[in-house]
Amino acid sequence: MVGVPKYDEAAIALAAQRLTRGERTAFAAACAERLWPLVERYAATIALPSDSLRGLREALEAAWAAAGGHADRLALETAKAVAEELIPSEDDDNWVFESGYAQNGIAAIAYAIDTRLRDGVQEAVWAGRQVYEAADYVAQQRLDTELLYTPELEEELSNTPVAQAAVRSILEDLAMANTEEAQVIRQRIISSSHGFASLFP
Fold it and tell me: Which residues contact 191 (CB under 8 A, 6 or more apart)?
């Protein structure tokens, strides 16, 4: 890739629009899978009950199955509800730094399921946005964001290594969704997700 990649949501939407329903779902599931190790980190930090973490994993697996064409609407709606129920809120008493990761990671699971349910382009784009927002969350912690939020600061945030890695990952997932079967993508993302997560403190 030439030059510095930038997060361009309009371009992502255009690319997602060219994908089939299953391919869009695979892209969205890939975004959620990249964030999964961060969800696990959050779960360990707050001692999330094991059945809740298992429910989230099952919801992500349901998204992957749907990407491969195995979609039961009721089961998907149930899985989505499980994920949405477990998205942490900033008003929670047990909010920790890792809760920010979980907000994005769990939301990505819900959006991946919704991509299949609604056959939506926007839902897939929102799943991709979670990857970038998780990286932006980290970048803001590392920079002096007490300063006025300006285009210059936004540029600085987008040029951080974690933000750059997030954009490259989103673009790679879009490209894979266009050329590979869902289960092939799943295995590749699982293999690389811990490396991606290592960029997050």
Answer: none
pLDDT, tens digit (0-9, with 9 covering 90-100), for 92-141: 888 999 999 999 999 999 999 999 999 989 999 999 999 999 999 988 87
Is residue 95 within 8 Å of 146, Cβ to Cβ?
Answer: no
Alpha-helical runs (H) found in 119-181: 121-142, 151-158, 161-179
Q: What is the DSSP letter of 87?
A: -
160 secondary structure, DSSP code: S
**52 Rama sector, left if φ>0, alpha if ψ -120 to 50, beta otherwise:** alpha
- What confidence tier does 44 reach under pLDDT thresholds 50, 70, 90? very high
Rounded to whole angstroms, the Cα distance separating 75 from 35 reads 23
Q: Report the alpha-carbon distance of residue 77 to residue 112 in Å, rounded.
A: 11
Q: What is the Cα–Cα distance from 182 to 121, expressed in whole angstroms?
A: 17
Output the pTM of the full model: 0.92
Closest C-alpha among 28, 7, 25, 24 to residue 135: 7
Cα angle 72, 191, 116 (rounded to 5 degrees) comes to 20
Residue 63 has pLDDT above 80, yes or no: yes
Length of the chain in terms of residues written: 201
H or E, element range at 35:
helix 21-46
